[in-house]
Write a structure and sequence with these properties.
Blueprint: H1 2-15, H2 20-43, H3 50-76, H4 83-107, H5 111-125
Length: 126
């Protein structure tokens, strides 16, 4: 029984090995979002509760499972269709936008608008 469970665990670890770096990056983005959210809450003198902080753990778990599921679906059913890349991109975009919203509240500037303006200026030069 133990050897059977051990072999399934080893197979699962090997199967999902390609997504570990992506999951690690996602965790970093969630942590950055949480840190900037805490800083914004402190600035606005809002109450920080363990319930709100537990959302970060839930987010990391749901995002990790989503990435693993998308990877498995792509690997097994549609190797030519980038399901995992699309899921990871949407998760990353969501977290980056949330971080930018928090930074906007901290700095009173529209950081995303500044980035877009800088890109437009750079595009006009070419």
């Amino acid at each position: 029984m133990i050897t059977w469970a051990k072999s399934i665990a080893i197979t699962s670890v090997a199967f999902f090995a390609p997504v570990y770096a992506i999951i690690g990056t996602t965790v970093v983005f969630v942590l950055l979002d949480t840190i900037t959210g805490i800083l914004l809450a402190l600035k606005l003198k809002k109450r920080i509760t363990s319930r709100k902080l537990s959302r970060a753990v839930a987010k990391m778990l749901v995002y990790s499972l989503t990435i693993c599921l998308a990877f498995a679906l792509q690997k097994v059913f549609a190797p030519e269709f980038p399901i995992q890349n699309m899921a990871t991109s949407l998760i990353g975009l969501s977290e980056v936008l949330s971080i930018l919203e928090n930074l906007n509240g901290l700095s009173h500037t529209k950081i995303l608008d500044r980035i877009i303006d800088a890109l437009k200026k750079n595009d006009d030069k070419e």
